[in-house]
Design brief:
Elements lengths: L2 H22 L8 H6 L6 H9 L5 H13 L6 H6 L2 H19 L4 H8 L3 H33 L6 H19 L1 H31 L2 H11 L14 H15 L3 H9 L3 H10 L1 H5 L2 H13 L11 H9 L4 H35 L9 H23 L6 H12 L3 H8 L6 H20 L9 H19 L15
Helix pairs in contact: 1-9, 1-10, 1-18, 3-10, 3-14, 4-16, 4-18, 6-13, 6-14, 7-8, 8-9, 8-18, 8-19, 8-20, 9-10, 9-18, 9-19, 10-11, 10-16, 10-18, 11-16, 12-20, 16-17, 18-19, 20-22, 20-23, 22-23
């Protein structure tokens, strides 16, 4: 049996196992809208920990993280810096959001916004921004799966087929089982990718340099620019710091995070998860090691695409057996598919409930809403797959672009939770101006001082909200709702 066939066989077995677990998780609750979306609001600590952790361990983690440490060196630590702030988000926002969701029947972020501001158009705007930001995020997972299959099988499974296989497996169990399928498959896949990440992160430096410490000693002698800021490729403190801020505040605004808050069985569960959540960030450390190991390994022949450094290290440099390569591919696919499942599920729910619900599905029954959500999973996943076929650039840059857009929801969300004096017209104007400004700075103009464009757009957003609050008179159409805490 050829090496490629061994790798393909191990991976296909893994995909079948994940599909079986996901389909088996379908229960009676999955047939109702609340069950399909929020798991009946009784998800406990362990499953919720792995569901939320899947947002870190994605194709971004297995491919983008080592890719950035290989390309930039020390600036890649921005990933650990912003993840250290995520537990604060869960602790501060999670219990409050979960309580409101249980009391008022919220299933999406847009539900909370529309209800608080008494404005369906504002909920639709939040939902629209969420879907637009989620699709590129989902594209990362499918593109990552395609890259993994193509490289690990030496082209026997091409990029388009590898991405398609991952897309079909994820779409099938999310279509069938909703959040229940996501929870149980994330538990399985979480354990798989944690073991694989630490094994590779320690084994590769040991094989090539005699250990992690010796690897960094050699880097200090031969390529010290990778161990200091601004790194080897000129990422200054400005971009580093603003990337941390955008990722931290933007991470708190993701629609799938709010939906997981709604699914928790209690606020106490969410606070427990926030305590253990940093363990996931700690598990990105070995993936950073792999990127640093690649700096010396490919010093003479730099890689054309930094996202492939993990694959090239495993297959071409460390010379692992096909059995290890197959397990590596399965672990990396676990990362991509677990996050992809979360994103496909959330994007479909937001599209149907927040965008289509007040318009074309205004009078739809619950059964029709569940059906439309299931089919939207397939439609949005297909759209992300087609975008992945366009061969997008750096996975990290795609993710940072998505964060820059989603962070524009920050003022309206904080207003709904903690600042009831903010009016709907103010936050709507801020979100529109901030989103437009971000897209222009990211794709048309250059961001001033080399900062992440999302920070400038956020400042513009806040300025518009403040000016509108101060100078635009509130009439009977723009009066805010009463505080959501009552």
């Amino acid at each position: 049996m050829s090496d490629s066939m061994i790798v393909i066989g191990i991976t296909l077995f893994y995909l079948v196992m994940v599909l079986a677990v996901g389909l088996r998780a379908r229960g009676q609750a999955s047939s109702s809208l609340e069950g399909y979306v929020a798991g009946g609001r009784h998800v406990g600590v362990v499953i919720l920990f792995f569901i939320l952790g899947a947002e870190i361990f994605s194709a971004f983690a297995f491919l983008g993280t080592p890719g950035w440490s290989y390309q930039h060196g020390a600036p890649a630590l921005y990933i650990l810096a912003y993840l250290s702030l995520v537990p604060i988000t869960i602790w501060a926002l999670g219990p409050r959001v979960a309580k409101l969701g249980r009391e008022r029947g919220y299933l999406t972020q847009g539900d909370m916004i529309a209800d608080h501001y008494r404005s369906k158009p504002l909920g639709m705007l939040a939902g629209g921004i969420g879907v637009v930001a989620l699709v590129p995020y989902l594209t990362i997972q499918i593109a990552g799966a395609g890259l993994l299959f193509q490289a690990a099988t030496d082209g026997a499974v091409p990029f388009w087929l590898g991405g398609l296989l991952a897309f079909l497996v994820v779409a099938a169990y999310v279509f069938s089982s909703g959040l229940s399928g996501i929870g149980w498959t994330n538990l399985l896949q979480g354990l798989m990718m944690i073991v694989i990440a630490w094994f590779l992160g320690l084994a590769i430096p040991e094989r090539l340099y005699g250990g992690v410490g010796e690897m960094f000693a050699q880097l200090q002698q031969q390529a010290p620019e990778y161990l200091t800021m601004p790194g080897a490729n000129g990422m200054g403190w400005g971009y580093f710091s603003t990337a941390v801020l955008v990722s931290a505040f933007g991470g708190a605004m993701w629609p799938h995070l709010f939906m997981k808050f709604y699914s928790a069985d209690s606020g106490k569960t969410l606070r427990k998860v926030s305590v253990f959540y940093p363990l996931y960030a700690y598990l990105l450390v070995p993936l950073l090691f792999i990127g640093f190991a690649g700096i010396l390994a490919f010093a003479d022949t730099p890689l054309e695409r930094s996202d492939t450094v993990l694959l090239r290290m495993v297959m071409d440099v460390a010379n692992f057996s096909p059995w290890v390569i197959g397990l590596m591919l399965s672990g990396a696919l676990a990362a991509a598919m677990s996050t992809g499942a979360n994103l496909a599920h959330t994007a479909a729910v937001v599209l149907v409930r927040d965008v289509m619900g007040p318009t074309v599905m205004k009078n739809a029954s619950e059964k029709s809403a569940v059906s439309a959500t299931r089919w939207s999973v397939l439609g949005l996943s297909l759209a992300a797959y087609l975008l992945a076929l366009l061969n997008p650039g750096s996975l990290v840059m795609i993710l940072l672009t998505a964060y820059g857009l989603i962070v524009q929801l920050f003022p309206m969300v904080i207003g709904a939770l903690f600042m009831p004096s903010l009016r709907r017209a103010s936050v709507m104007a801020g979100a529109l101006v901030g989103s437009l400004g971000y897209l222009l700075m990211d794709f048309v103009w250059s961001s001033p001082f080399g900062w992440h464009a999302g920070v400038w757009a956020m400042l513009l957003n806040i300025a518009v909200v403040a000016i509108w609050q101060r100078f635009v008179r509130a009439d009977h159409d723009t009066l805010q709702a009463s505080p959501v805490s009552h």
